[in-house]
Amino acid sequence: MSTPVAIVGAGPVGLSLALDLAWRGIDAMVLEKEDGHVTHPRAGFVSVRTMELFRRWGIAQAVRESGFPGDFALSIEFCTSLAGHTLARDEYPALAAMPLPEWSPEKKQRCPQHWLDPVLKRALWDSGRGTIRVETRVDGFEQDAEHVLIRATDLRRNAPLAIRADYLVGCDGAGSTIRTGLGIEMEGRGHLNYSMSVLFSCPGLLEQCGKQAAERFLLIGPEGTWGNVTVIDGRDVWRLTVYGTAAKFDMEAFDARAWVQRALGTDRIAFEVVSILPWKRAELVAGSYGRGRVLLAGDAVHTMSPTGGMGMNTGLGDVADLGWKLQAMIEGWGGPALLPAYTQERQPVAVRNAAYSTHNYKTWVSPPRCEYLLEDTAQAEAARREIGEQMKRATQYEWQSWGLQMGYRYDESPLCVADGTPPVPDEYSRYEQTARPGARAPHAWLEPGRSTLDLFGRGFTLLAFGDGAMAEAARFVREADRRGMPLAVHRIESGQAARAYGAPLVLVRPDGHVAWRGAEARDAARIVDIVRGAR
């Protein structure tokens, strides 16, 4: 068998990469060693930036309608148990009541992985490009200057397979077979704690506990924060995460029902344990995102605490960066510096996001020991109030992380041409749109329902503001055509967009990041070669 791109791993990152390539007209073969059924969804939070990608691929509406109730409030509660004492609540609206941010045509969404994966698979099927082979284990690979030869096993038939690909991408998780085969090490902190994830079903949980809707309940006991309960489907299914040590989580000794009962604070509520998943919390980033024709994305190159919901969303950022680069190499207009820039651009983002996630985890477990916390005394009531307000203040940094989600950029990328302007501050909780090269190209409405972001994607985009800019744009078109680089020119009349972009001409990459901006195009040939990795 042969394919332009082979992708190992059919999780959200692998499926999204296949869908991005299909949207670009490129076939990919996704290889998954399991049967493709998600029994224990881990990812659930879809960031605004990821929703913008889903908008590009035409699946944003399907994700919004996947099943999570629009009227379920996404508040945060700090409590001793769901039936116990409330220490504090941080109120946040339901998705339906949440306004669009001024800097995006999309807003965040909750979509657990067992709903998201089928949306991605359906879109890939509808595209007519790409295939998914489940129960196919990749055993090894070799690469030369032109191809990658993949050795695999069809587990259904116990038969060997040989697959020839132009490029191979490992999206196969923290224990990546592909990363191991490349000899690339992970760097950072390999152990923050051990956790046990317990998926359980409990119809009418909130009503039975006398609680209002919340996205997450942080559970605080005499020993400090010991776990959390997170909403999955907004109805019956919840996930309890218990923090501890490896010894504490001996699978044979772990009593999931007892821990769920502690979280509920009562033994009078019926529930069913659906599945149990032990895992290790870590802050690790790969030393490189690939070698030669073999690349890596998602958890294969970065593992981070889920506190903040940046794991899958960082992986989708990898997809946005890598998809167009593979397109350029397969279609022949990408230069030799293009794929090496993938590591240069994405690795600093993973380091940044992983550090933020660890910071969030530390705020979650920051309460001091308080042996009398559960008592019905004035002293305990005062302690609960103080600890609740302390945690509410500390964790707001996480729930309002717009700068983190939206503001990552490629300031030092060899594929972007600096314009000498100073960078805006990289603040985790505040996002300021900028069209400085390396940054995400700003959103501005061009007409009802149509954003500047809707112009970007399949190739490079040149935005021209005014008659003079349109005349200059012709030089870019000539130079791009000579090199076979796809380039679309759009004349923009919007004053809001002109103010947001800050220059008569702005060249935007296929991933929606600004590559160059300026007033004239005398240097168009050099700029085109830089942005496609030919210099």
TrEMBL record:
Record InterPro entries: FAD-bd (IPR002938), FAD/NAD-bd_sf (IPR036188), RIFMO-like (IPR050641)
Domain of life: Bacteria
Domain FAD-binding: 3-353
Gene3D superfamilies: 3.40.30.120, D-Amino Acid Oxidase, subunit A, domain 2, FAD/NAD(P)-binding domain
Cofactor: FAD
Keywords: FAD, Flavoprotein
One matching Pfam family: Rng_hyd_C
Protein name listed in UniProt: FAD-dependent oxidoreductase
